[in-house]
Amino acid sequence: MIACAIRQRVERQRSADRFSGRPDRVAGPTGSSTSRNKPDLNSVPVTLESGSGLCYVRTRFSCIFANYSIGRVGAAQLVGATVGARMKQEFGSRRGRGWSSAQNDWEPQPTGECNAASQMRQQGAEFYDCVHTESNIPATRALYYPLMRKVVESIQDHGSCSILEVGCGNGFLAEMLLQENRVSYRGFDFSPVAVRNAADRTGHPELFFRGDALDAQSYACDYDTIICTEVLEHIDADLDVIRVWRDGAWCVCTVPNFDFPSHVRFFRTPEQVAARYSGLIDIRTVIKVTRPIMPDGRVSSYLRNLRWSRNDPSRFLGFLGVQTFDRLGGWFLLCGTKKQRDG
Question: What is the pTM of this model?
Fold first, then answer.
């Protein structure tokens, strides 16, 4: 057992060294399917880590693309999406659209215009069952805490009384809302794993149910406010989802400024966000929320990210606080009132 532990520790160190910024480390997509730097998805060890912001890990069952914070032993704490084996075949269509070859990692870049016609397909419930299984950890809450804090503040400022959350996920936001506000809350998700995790996290299983965002029956409850965070960018028919919402409801939504394997669209500017959704929502505000540069609160993690970014001036400056939103990514938070249906 001791020998096995030593071998695992040595392998972790070798993996970390291989991704420590040296020129010969495995690179991300280069735009060429014959590039010698393209990683072999079947040979990457479990402990393989990339540079800052996003890690690439191969497990026995899946390929995982996740934001992470580094612990004392350098293991990635997975935060984000689990991508099934079918993603292997779909990576070819991602090259050249929102991915950096100079980055030398698998970090999706906040580049390009709002892409409403992505070559990536909308994923199903099974895909997100894997996502919510992998991301049901404290590091996820730390990563999304700045965004959730802004959502809660917008709810408090508006004086919302009854909330329906579209895509409740693992219940991190629901937990914060229930702890800090006296509101009536319901939430649904089409992933049964997400619904179960949200119920366990909050201790209120009666507040959550499985539902489809396009099904009017999912909205058959009293609410004056819709919360829809990190959902619309994953849905092909995002505008049809909004059309189902109750007229006059206060809407609090978020969308990303970066591309990702499960995103069917992303946005670069507040103007692009407004252009897509202003026909259905009377938008009052669109604000930028920057991802945290030290989500786990550890200086050692921050310094390691700086070291891994030293060959990428843009990311290095982002970690120093220079245009972090554009360089490292973040979210647009839009608030407004659902417009009356035509006719």
Answer: 0.69
